[in-house]
């Protein structure tokens, strides 16, 4: 991986998807874990969709977009907006988009799908829940193993890259920290009953476009928590304490926000988001490897701690700082470590399965990376 990718953190979600799709040594063992459960879930989901189609359409037409007084008892301006949307054309067509960028869709079908697709996603999640956790862990571990580095490569510890690192204020780290409290509030906001009310019973009547915007908002809210969660194995294998993890993330907070936003948004897509959560593990492992390569450059004094004026938006300096000499030194360091012998799947790469806001019910408990 070229180090230039460090300056495009969201790109690692695409890198992870590419590696998962093209690397048979990762794809095969990972998909073997979920393929049978996926087939069962898709079959049950298809039967449910076919069996409930007429009933759900009637519910949507009668109670949700059925005109004044029928929006679950909500009257007034909200209900009148629903009636206005339905009567906009003979078939209840509405414009979904921003300005001239959009498409005219049937409001009843649109609302029907917005309710049905998350339900199908939950059905599939029920069937793949256990194996999906193992597949995610295996994807991360196999990606780490594919880099052919010994355990020592990952366990050199935290190396400071800034001349003036940030200092945690009182209550910023540890149990009960401000970040943990904010995470709980975000978790409540992203709780499924809250989302149900926001998406289906408030936003659609106000504007059919708003439910499409909600995933962007929620992905931003849980971005840094998602990214930090995905790098928990990296922090553990480096044996970083809570203060070091806080400082590491704080120095790269916009990089973590950008990567976490992209990862969270991909995972919010109904149905296929479950499997994109696997590729996000691969992308997180690839990003961790590139960050660790940079740590080795500082450990070997190829790079010096950055002054405040040079840390850049992502906390890793400017892409223009990666000159030919640094690239050569990076390649030489990587070659020497490769000669020590590659890692294998039985090497400890940390273990994690934490509960994070907006991570979904499938991401609870702890899971081994092996």
TrEMBL record:
Residues 338-370 are annotated as: Disordered. Signal peptide: none annotated. This is Uncharacterized protein. Residues 361-370 have a biased composition (Polar residues). The chain crosses the membrane at residues 41-60, 107-128, 254-276. InterPro entries: Spore_wall_assembly. Keywords: Membrane, Transmembrane, Transmembrane helix.
